[in-house]
Amino acid sequence: MTPPLALTALPQEQVATTPNPGGNALLDLVNKIGPPEWIPDWIVALHAVGAGVGILIGIVSLIAMYSVWMERKVSGHMQCRLGPMYAGGWHGWAQTIADGVKLLMKEDMIPTGADRVLFIIAPGIVLASIFGALVAFPISYDFYFARMDLGIFMILALGSTTTIGVIMAGWASNSKWSLYGAMREAAQVIAYEIPLGLALMAPLITLGTFSLLDASALQSDWFGMKWAIFTNPANLPAFVIFWIAALAETKRAPFDLPEAESELVAGFLTEYSGIRWSFFFMEEYAAMFLMSVIAAMFWFGGFESPATWALRSAGVEGGIFFGAVCFVTLVIKAFAGVFLMMWLRWTLPRVRIDQVMTMGYKYLTPLALLCVLIAAVSEAVKSLLF
Amino acid sequence: MVEQTQEYKPSIQPSEEGRVLPSGEREFFFDVSTSDLEVNMGPQHPATHGVMRVLLRTDGELVTGAQPHLGYLHRGAEKIGENVEWLQYLPYTDRYDYLAAMNNNLGYSLAVEALMPGLEIPRRATLIRTICAELNRIASHLIAFGTYGLDIGAFTPFFYAFREREWIQALFEKICGARLTYSYIRIGGVFNEAPPGWLKEVEHFCDVFEEKWKEYYDLLALNHIFVMRTKDIGVITPEMAYDFGLTGPMLRGSGIDFDLRRDMPYMDYTEIWEAGAYQIPLGSGEKGTLGDCWDRFDVRVKEMIESIKIVRYCLGVIEPGPVLGDVPKVIKVPPGEAYVGIENPRGELGHYSHSDGGKVAVRCRVRGPSFVNLAVLEDLMPGTLLADSVAIIGSTDIVVGETDR
Amino acid sequence: MVSTKEYFQNVWDALKTTAIGMRITGKYLMQKPITVQYPDERLPIPDRYRGIHYLEQEKCINCLACARACPIDCIEMDAIRHGKELEWVAFTLDYQKCMFCELCVYPCPKDCIHMGTEFALVTYDRSELNHDLLSFQGMGRGARIRMREAQAKKAAKEKAKAAAAAKKADTEKDADEPEAAGAGTGGDE
Amino acid sequence: MDFKAIYDHLRAVDAPGLIEADEPRLPDKETKDKGRSGMPFVRIEPASFVDFLLVCRDDPKLTFELLVDLTASDPAADDENLWVLVQLLSVKHKHRLAVKAYLPKSSASIPSATAVYRAAQWHERECGEMYGITFVGHPDPRNILLPDDWVGYPMRKDYEFPKEYHGVSCE
Q: Which CATH number fits domain C53-139: 3.30.70.3270, 3.40.50.2300, 3.20.20.70, 3.30.1360.40?
């Protein structure tokens, strides 16, 4: 019999680089500052959580804002246009802020005959689920909201909860076009959860962990370039499959069927306006970012790059500067992913609903299974050889 | 065509407690019931290319029936034609098919000139007319190309198409001063001489366009998703095309080799054809079935490059000379009736003019190709998916200004 | 059902054509945009542009040829004749109706009505669109602004010219006969 | 084939309802005939409209596959007839034929050509609403461009424009 596969063989010395396993960095920080003795622990904890939520909301809003701005600039330049140029001065950097203010000021409209309660809470559910998923998003090795050994599980689980919000929005709008959009979303997300999860299995087998931080730490070799995509032949096709499935999960073109504007007017968004509409919008961009973070973490080395490797070999590890470098590396990788999504969006036509289903079930799922198989076999071969 | 013979059998069986209706049938109570959904596509919908309304009956994503409703843009243009002078009607012809206004001007002018046997059109005027009409055909097909991409969900080709279209519009702006409603080709010739250097600019445009055209083809027409979306959809068989009186790219998309420019020539198209300057692209069924949406789209895209060839030929033979025949200021047309059909970008644009010898027409009929081509929708839509219905409307390439007149 | 060959052909085609498309869009991402920032930069307007009309009033003989040529009767003109002199009552053009077909320009025997290059017709009230061609008041806000700008520019140019001329005259005077300047001032005294 | 040949052939096959050919002629000052320019027509009996079209479509020498246009015309307010004008086009032989039928204004009715060419369907709906011509046997004789409740036939020469429509003044 062969020895147990790499799934269980975690290199211990590398895991040790991620301190404080199982804890909450924020809570530690608060403890370090040392609040007076008489304040109960639960109040301290609550404050820590509040601070975390605040940081999270800030990050999500910033990401969404600048993804929107980036989308408009990227699409503009791809189409020989300029995109926003006025608001704020330099290349319209404040355009999204101005738009956000406008959306806040807009009249809050609920169509007649709409299911008011569902109509109002649907954007909240959508946004809440993506916030929930982002809790697992680490900012650096030392700074994270929650360290979870099964972080990727939680992200996938909470990330697909947005579907419920979308279906609620579509149903509650009392519009036929919205209903079509909601039904399409339901069908599409169910179809693409499977290849998404299966495609993730390949790097998970390669790395042998479900935790985002561990996955990143495991790729720190080879001058910070021991990325999973290079270490296993199945990971590149698995990434392509994951990426296609991620596009479908985040409702991005060519899979933007739920809101296909030439067919369904605006799908489930038809009746929404103002700030509620912008919640859906924020969710879309946050989800894009989250998918890109997953791809960066499990295929492209996470925090690791030659820069972090150089810092580490110079003895700088931990501390604010190292954390900042980690964060910037990750954000650059994630925004590269977001850019790839945009590039695809502005190149491809939209797929039809039956083709979406065919693609999900008949093409991506079997191919993803094949990838899992190849990944497992090659890992086994590797563990036999080395 | 997919036959619609689906019947619904609810999964939950009816309960026994039902009441007997007056008709003798038994009414059952279901927990779940399904029925067809009637959806109004339009009058304001991104895919109807203007204010047209299609009443769809859908069964989930499946379209089981479609009924176009027209008239939202009806302006009584034919009635106006009976109330204004011959030349004064010219600006109104711009507004039928506002994407190909030069061709409309040309059709109307030819129809009136057919009633004026003594009128000589100078050769330079004819060539400028040909250049303008072909450039406008390109501009119109660019819109068809771009908006079809938009219907299918690709945004970027639309902007590339508009980039070249803007160039054509700038050329027209230089020659006649307007960008959309040109009123340039008039009875007896054209309104004024091309400005100096204009023909050189047209040549430059032709050079650049040929390069860009390849990009269009690669970017959209050959894209796998696009091909999958448009092949085997909305198949018009040759018999159907004849029956519905389709003309232009709709007819050629079904593989019927007929083009008014070659087969019923007007102006100097015989000469250009005999010089071998252009071919007539036909639907080939290359990607799917003969006469599907892809074939029609392909015909339009390929026609652009053929138009460039015609323009190049005209640029080669054009010589200085007058551009307006001997036309009085107030045109009086001898009595008679004439029907002239020309090859508009969308099909045969027919103008029927009837004069009783006065300053005003008795009847000014316009046979808009979009109006006729749209009728086929009722037959094509049932049995397709909702997204296909958008693709089919797009592939008919209608201009609502023309269907409603 | 699709055959195995077709299955992999589909996968290959999808990936290949996507790559081709991305190459094209990526190429344009790197290139300079072709649009201009409208109110700041303007494309040149060709000479034949059919914008808002302008009238050379002194040439006009009130022959009504343009009004008759108009397909929608949007020109209204009236003048009282005092011998050879014309006292204008009205010459209005209703831009709510006008479709800029240029048919009014050709029949004019005195060549006095033209299409201008101004196109900004935005007003707050429809009644403002009934323009009086006899005064510039009717030419639209954008036209007025540009007219004022042009006038200011012209005035500045003339001023500069005058200043330059004066300076030149001064220097010439200075160079030619410096005493003369003194004599001049002396004369003033 | 040119018009002469088509007309001769129609005579030869004894096309139903064929009355005469109306060709352009030069003006004649003696008979005060203003002449007629333009294109030649074939005039037919309205009652045998469908049979005539069938002959045109199915005769191997004519094969008019396309009904390009079907329209009506009101030549003058005091004229007692309306005209129905049909343009046929043969893709195979590359020739055209214009067909005309006179209908009395008092009872303007003609068999529908929908059974022969489905292209006629929308054209006939338009003629019906604009000129008040009844196309007998039309499958869907609704208004197509005008609202369903429109009164009168706007393209007739004696049509009077309504003063108001649904409370909106049209002055």
A: 3.30.70.3270
